[in-house]
Amino acid sequence: MSDVAHAADTAGTAETAGTADTSDTAHPADSAVLAMIAGRVKRLIVDNLHLEGLRPEMIDEEAPLFGEGLGLDSVDALELVVAVEKEFAIKIKSNEIGRDVFSSVASLSRFIAGRV
Amino acid sequence: MNREVVITALGTAGAHGCGRASLERALAAGAPPPATEVDRAAGYHQPEGARRALITPVAALAPWLPPAEARRMGPPSRLAVAATRMALAEAGLDPARLAGPGTAVVVSTAFGPTSFSEALLRQVLQDGPESASPYLFTECVANAPAAQIAIACGARGVNVTLCQREAGALLAVARGAAEVAAGRAERALVGAVDEMSPLLHAMLDRFGALARGRSRPVRGARRPDEGGEIGRPFDRRRDGVVAADGATVLLLETAAAAARHGREPLARIRGWGSAFDPAAPPTGWGASGEQLGRALRRLLLRCGAAPGGASPGGLGALDPPASVSGGPPGASSPPGASGLLGASGLLGSIGAIDRIVSGASGARAGDRLEARVLRAAWGEAALPPVLAPKGVTGEYGGGFLAAAVLAAAGVAGVACAPTAGFGEPDPDLGVSPHDGRPLPPPRALLASSLAAGGAACWLILGRP
Amino acid sequence: MQPGGATQAAPAEMAARASGGRAGGGDARRVVVSGLGAVSGFGWGVEALWQGLRAGATAIRPFSRFDHAAHRTHLAAEVPARPPAPVPFAAQPEGRLLSLADRFALAAAGEALTAAGLGEALGLLPEGAAGVFFGSSTGGMWESELFVAGLFGGRRGALRAVASQQVNGPGDAVARGFGVTGPVQTVSSACASGALAIAAALASLRCGEVEVALAGGSDSLCQLTYAGFNSLRSVDEAPCRPFRAGRAGMSIGEGAAVLVLEPLERVLARGALPLAELAGAGGACDAFHMTAPEPEGTGAAAAIAAALGDAGLAAGEIDFVNAHATGTPLNDAAEWRALRRVFGERAGRIPVTATKAALGHLLGCSGAIEALVTVLSLARGELHPVPADAADPIDDACPAALVIGRPLAVPAARAGLSTSLAFGGSNAALVFTRWTGAAP
CB 3.0-4.6 Å disulfide test: which of B286, B368, C217, C398 passes with C336? Predict the structure, then answer.
């Protein structure tokens, strides 16, 4: 089962609509802020995705979330979206839920940093 | 096409534990397993209401559910997948052998995924719609267990979930048997699953469905079923059911395939039928057993199992006999009867029903209707021994279905104890369940279920 | 699998025939549709439905059933309110206990029975001769939400609000309302429920278990499913656009549909004419994922092949497809793959109707209402269009021959296929054929 494909097609428009800009140069975020956000994201993953035996410190920020790495799928991504929206009081549009933003904890953290 | 269908595996989970042996022990002991105090913290329950339910020990399911797989499953899916694996393990079947388009799945549930639905509703109504959890929603559908079973086994045949309350379990078996008999599937995983959340328990209690133990515990009583919340099938003192959760999954396949693979059937499926009482209120049972009794009698007649002898009411009176796959137009097959299986597609006369497994549960109106239906169908003839296992299994979950199959399989322990919960006959009913004296294995067993709301379903199981 | 040409049976279909998938063989009773009833976003009744469909309109619009300001989307195909009217010849006990889904179902069943010329005559059938086979996802969930909201707020609430809460509520209400004493069952297999219910009715009629079947479904809008599908980001903010390049999700609808099914000879014997024949049904499961369809469409193709085998028809004999076509990127792509598997290169030329663009997704009822539309398409020789949208072309990746903008006349269409690809992977397909008046 190709979870990578699922993640890319989570809302179906990642391939057709523009994805959110996650490059550092667009919105240079303080590395301490990023680290703090990443820490909260890891906590959300642990608390919301019911991955047995997983602790935040075990999550590699640059490792893929989908497919390999944690092996999450499209429904996990969506669950994480709800948790992130609530935790950071932001709104994530459906066409932003795609391969780029959610490829790793680091990319997701950069996205969040650009929003809060 | 009209192939003979047999049951070759059974998995069951309930308050009794996991696996058929644990249920057999509970039935042989003639007493229900310990009930669990239902969590009342949410405040749904009435102070004077029922407090207990028969709940499957959660830890008992763990060996059957790898965490990576179970992490997103709701309680019904966990129960159903675990029971499926138990069935396959007991039959010594490699699950990979089931994978493919020839394996159908038919699951019934009375109430569906109540705890996840409640949690999702809390999110939507209290925290706002955008806080709705995809995890919860995915498992909020009645068909989640059937879908999870299919994924777990690679079962790519037709996948059906039925909801018909207390009659659903037998309907699911009938539907699965029909698929296999007609050649639309090679085998079918069929069964029943229900969870029993505090909200559901409280609602059943508010509708007056649950036993509250109006008979107070008797000091010094030796028998554990004196007083307290007890399901008392057919008993004069009955005051409701004991709610239960659990799941039972059966493997159905053709007799030929079972023989080819050296799998001993537990029972043969000889026929089924269903009917409806339009006079029943949506949450209860009708008062008259006459109409449903006629429906049952038509089924028995069509099987050649009419009480009181094979003829003149038996098969010979129908000419020509109709096969499952349709007879000539205008065939005189009486309506209301249903699928019947025989090795060659013709009706094989079953001979007399010599065992009944009744869905009587302690429900006041439900048991009365059940008694009236059986009496109406049997007429002047004496009823065969009536087993009423819901005093042990409780109502909902798959316990009744499992007990019926074990009874048909001739498992001695099923009938060797006096009926749990029963002690005083109800003169209004004219039916008393089995007292525990030894019985030979049955030749033809009728399982009977009447749903609140009006549906009825009967299943005839033959000796393996 | 290599797609074959128009005259070559697709391997999947050949396999279905080889496995003896056809129930009953040549002696099986032929089952026809003798009456239809519907409630939809276009209104109460089949004519309201059909006129809305023909016009290429959509019933997906802002709705008022509940406050959707805080939901992620704001459209649905809501059934217009109308004053409760007693259904003729139906028992009307305890009307307060009926859910909205029950009311939809009763109205549709009453209309269907009247159209079939049965009505009062249903009660004259031998006991046990009629059955109800229904599909639903929500049952009385809408009313239950109101009740449970009260519970969360510490209020007791009136029990009658949840008296018909379960998904078998609408089917049971129909049985109760019309005095049905034969088999009554409700299927709740998500989007495949209605089609699987019709399949159960077909089997029951063929083997003589019943003489008349009321087969259909009913679902009403509720916050649970509305928020739930939105949590999956499956719902388009605009009315859904099946097979279009810019499609972004499904739209939710509500309503009911009932088909009266009978053996052919019964219908002819009372001088009535069948609307269409229900030639076959089939089902198969993806066994792949709880929400996403198997991308290659093999499960859907297997269901279609099973239905064709059951009907004794070759893929080349299907003249149009009423597709499941929810408008989600994944569904339509997978469904297209399934159509390619079954129809080969012809897949891009078979006319396709996408009823959900007009009615929304009726969830458990969808297979039933789309079966009803398939029957109408055959009986009236016309395929309804989806609303025209010049700005949004067909997606190259799923180039179905979608009927757009104007109805397509198909007076010679003999066989139509209706597909249902459910959440959770259960797939079902139905094959209807046009009644031509030929002797059985």
Answer: C398
pLDDT in tens, chain C (440 residues): 333 333 333 444 443 333 333 344 455 799 999 999 999 999 999 999 999 999 999 999 999 999 999 999 999 999 999 876 777 667 766 677 899 999 999 999 999 999 999 988 888 899 999 999 999 999 999 999 999 999 998 888 888 888 889 999 999 999 999 999 999 999 999 999 999 999 999 999 999 999 999 999 999 999 999 999 999 999 999 999 999 999 999 999 999 999 999 999 999 999 999 999 999 999 999 999 999 999 999 999 999 999 999 999 999 999 999 999 999 999 999 999 999 999 999 999 999 999 999 999 999 999 999 999 999 999 999 999 999 987 899 999 999 999 999 999 999 999 999 999 999 999 999 999 999 886 55
* CATH superfamily entry for domain B276-462: Thiolase/Chalcone synthase (3.40.47.10)
State yes or no: is C384 an active-site residue: no
CA distance B67 to C273: 57
CA A116, CA B246: separation in Å to the nearest integer?
Answer: 46
Between A and C, how many CB-CB pairs are < 8 A? 40
Among partner residues A12, A81, A94, which is closest to C330 by beta-carbon distance?
A: A12
The whole model's pTM is what? 0.92
* C367 inside 8 A of chain B by CB: no
CATH of domain B5-267: 3.40.47.10
Q: Vertex C31, ends C265 and B143: CA angle to 5°?
A: 155
Q: Which runs of E-coded beta strand occur in C304-360? A: 320-322, 351-353
Cβ contact C248–A11 (<8 Å): yes
Distance from CA of C233 to the nearest CA of A (A): 6
Contact assessment for residue A48 and residue A65, using Cβ atoms and an 8 Å cutoff: no
**Would you call the peptide bond into C93 cis, given omega within 30 degrees of 0 as the criterion?**
no
Q: At what angle do helices C298-311 and C329-343 cross, to 10 degrees?
A: 50
Chain C residues near residue A1 by CB distance under 8 angstroms: 288-289
**Domains of chain C in sequence order:** 11-22+29-434 (3.40.47.10)
Determine whether C324 is an active site residue. Answer: yes
C residues 321-360 closer than 8 Å to B (CB): none
The answer to whether the beta carbons of residues C177 and C102 sit under 8 Å apart is: no
The full set of domain ranges for chain B reads 5-267, 276-462
- Selected residue of B65, B72, B77, B137 to mutate for chain A interface (largest A Cβ count, 10 A): B72
3 state DSSP class of C397: coil
**Residue C74: active-site member:** no
What is the DSSP track for B399-421? HHHHHHHHHHTT-GGGGSSPPTT
Spatial distance between the Cα atoms of C407 and C124, rounded to a whole number of angstroms: 41
The helix-helix angle for B114-122 and C141-152 (nearest 10°) equals 60
- Rounded to whole angstroms, the Cα distance separating B160 from B172 reads 9
Q: Which residues pair with B448 in a beta bridge?
A: B358, B458
In chain A, residues with a C-beta closer than 8 Å to the C-beta of C288 are 1
Residues B176, B162: Cα–Cα separation, whole Å: 11
| CATH for A3-13+32-113, options being 3.40.630.10, 3.40.50.1860, 1.10.1200.10, 2.40.50.140 | 1.10.1200.10
**Closest residue in chain C to residue B324, using alpha carbons only:** C207
Omega prior to B320 cis, within 30 of 0: yes
Answer whether C424 touches A (CB < 8 Å).
no
Chain B residue numbers with beta carbons less than 8 Å from the beta carbon of C224 are: 117, 120-121, 124, 137, 140
Chain B residues 123-162 with CB within 8 Å of chain C: 123-126, 128-130, 132-134, 136-144, 146-148, 150-151, 153-162
